[in-house]
Amino acid sequence: MSQSLILNGVPWFDDDGHAVNAHGACIVEDAGRYHLFGEYKTDDENRFAGFSCYSSPDLVHWRFERLALPPQPDGPLGPNRIGERVKVMRCPATGRYVMFAHADDLGYRDPLIVIAVSDAVNGEYRMVGPLRHHGEPIRRWDMGTFQDIDGTGYLMTHEGDIYRLSDDYLSAEELVASDIAPGGESPAMTRIGDTYVIMFSNKTSWDRNDNYYLSAPSPAGPWTYRGLVAPQGSCTWNSQCSFIFPLTLADGRTVPMYMGDRWSFPHQVSCASQVWLPLHYDDVDDSIGLPDYWPAWDPRTGEPGDLPSGREMAAELDSSALGEEIRLSFSCGERERLAVIGTTDIDGGYAMLTIAEPNGTTVFSSLVDCYSPTPYTGVMFVCPELTAGDYELRLRTTGEASVFYKKDGTRLGSTGTRVRTTAIRLI
Ligand code: DGJ
């Protein structure tokens, strides 16, 4: 398999073969490496389990650095708390790295924005406490950060409040714009030329929806609603915006890279994945967008790439009934990966995928999420590299699906437990 492409919508694996566990993420480029910070999720509950830091030379190969902020003994990210949407920026005035995050109780009823600091980008961050504006903690949940080209830092919150940070990034100095996106969550901002762009999702818990954006000549506005980020009904290509990273391509051009989450509650480690795509910018009308979904693309060129064709075998399973399974023997070459091809849809459930040696020893197993509010047919899962040999694949329906509830009790997520696969491909 080509090792130079970003694969969208499938879990990634680090150089130890563990799932890259960094969600609601951001990237900090430092000394020639990309540092990915995100929520270190668990597969069965939503309690804060830390914020992770991974690093990569190319946005494709990831190394786990550490838990940049482990669960704290007490305080806003202590026991029985939630920690989300971690963002990190290097403060130009102090040279320190400042981490911002949403801390909350398990019912999301005690929201706070908190800050932590470190002298090294990949060090362990020290909790400072709530981020304050005029001495008062900012009691908001979803948040994002943005660093302008002159180094000025901003914090954005749900509903669309934008704060300019103090020079040391440790307090919010001025509320420069307020309530620009009522009902909006997961703010992500960037600057393209002299235009500032901010994206929001709608409030549908872990579900995906059609995210939208506004633009302005300055972070203070005036902000104008500009429309959807991706085609209507695509649910932002089945993702929720989290961050916009200015990506420098091999030819020196910089393109804004959209970073979104494809959540999979409650199995966020095994099945939540990333959707990263270069944002298309049109200088005629100053608009941005994600007109096409690329399952794979090359971060050196900013162009779509073809998933390797590889050897393909039929692997047909279409069932919602618990415990139905198919078994398939296959052999693979050194460092080949097994890709599962099928359809995800509104009624999709979780499948259990197991790869075992002929003697029955399991070498890899994972849940595979077949749910997506917008149907998709293609690669649903790619396992880590295998060693050459003979294996048996088992794909089994679990009778379980990604289902979750809004604060008001509305049920969201999958309407069924269907697993639909057609083939496997060795790539
Ligand atoms: C939507 C937010 O964007 C996520 O970060 C998370 O808090 C979920 N809600 C929880 O339902």
UniProtKB/TrEMBL annotation:
Is-annotated flag, keyword Zinc-finger? no
Q: Which UniProt keywords apply?
A: Hydrolase
The record, for Gene3D superfamilies, names: Galactose-binding domain-like, Glycosyl hydrolase domain, family 43
| Coiled coil location | none
InterPro entries listed in its UniProt record = Glyco_hydro_beta-prop_sf
Q: Is-annotated flag, keyword Hydrolase?
A: yes
Concerning CDD domains, the annotation shows: GH43_Pc3Gal43A-like (cd18821)
Q: Which GO molecular function annotations are given, in alphabetical order?
A: hydrolase activity
PANTHER family under this entry? GLYCOSYL HYDROLASE 43 FAMILY MEMBER, GLYCOSYL HYDROLASE FAMILY PROTEIN 43
User: Per its record, how is this protein called by name?
Assistant: Glycosyl hydrolase family 43
